[in-house]
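Bug #2210: token dump truncated for Sporulation integral membrane protein YtvI?
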Amino acid sequence: MNQPYLAIAFRAGYVLLVIAAVGTAGYYSFSVIYPFLFALILAVIINPVVEWFEQRTGFSRGINVLIVLSGFLIAGFGLLTLIIAEIVSGTAYLAKMLPVQLNKIAIYSEAFFTNKIMPLYNQFATFFDGLEAGQQESIIAQIQHLTSEVTSSTASFLSIILESVSHFFAFLPNTVAALMISLLATFFISKDFYKFTDGIQVALPERLLIGARAVYIELKKALTGFLKAQLTLVGITMILVLIGLLLLQVNHAFTIAFFTGLIDLLPYLGAGSVFVPWILYLVLTKQLPLAISIGVLYTVVLLVRQLAEPKILSKSIGLHPLGALVALFAGFKLFGFFGLIIGPALFVLIQAFIHTGICKDIWLFIKGK
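Reproduced locally. Full output below:
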């Protein structure tokens, strides 16, 4: 092989090896360092607020960091208190209305069993008695097989639910511990924020600092845009649900719209976790006009969000709508529901590398220039 091509291949292999090593190290160390990554991100976010307090209070930076963190915690607990209060209010409303609705469901189930199931059973019994013995045995075997399959599936489903509950309660203490560690780490990072940044500037080469600073600016802009996009999408969901419920004259329209918007933020749930059980309940209680109306409202919310999400994301984080759509789809396919966040984040990171010239520098390094 020609000597220049051998050197290019060697440098390309070296770059790929470094990328693979960094990716592997990040993947396997994430479970250990994620509280500190969260703390670093939070420290960067609150740093402008801390600086604002420093300019106006005259207190030491540590006290200002405590003030800002306390404000964030108070706001978080206030929101949590509001959510719990709304849940208690909704639970009280359900406690008052549920017995009446359950009685309706019981009456409907009894009528359905008497008018629909029993005639079918009698027809099947008459048909079954007219069959030959071999045919009866075949039908009995198929019913036993179907019953076994249903029982096995039900047992597996219940086992998964029970395991999920146990995993949730086992995960809860770890989450609380990680949150406390993140808050403490945020305080120490934010308190000595400029000492850390000065140390990094001394330790790293100037060219690497320029590239890192440019990537940081791009990512900060993209993160701000992403948060704004998510808040916009949640606001759209809340407004659509609120308008629809007010037109349908549904009780507690503001509360339902507020919680639907919050749940719409969660990857595994979404607005469907509110609307689908609600529609099924309305169908079972023979409230078909309202069930159809709620179904239409859910369809409108779903379509508007699906159509608006790529456009809003592309506008907020600087991606082309097609790029945002590809990032969402690829992230969903590779990482599941969390890929709807990871996909655009990786796309933005790659775009930041391109815009800041890092990819060009790597290519020039591989070519030996």
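Output looks complete on our side. The radius of gyration is 29 Å. Marking as cannot-reproduce; reopen if the truncation happens again.
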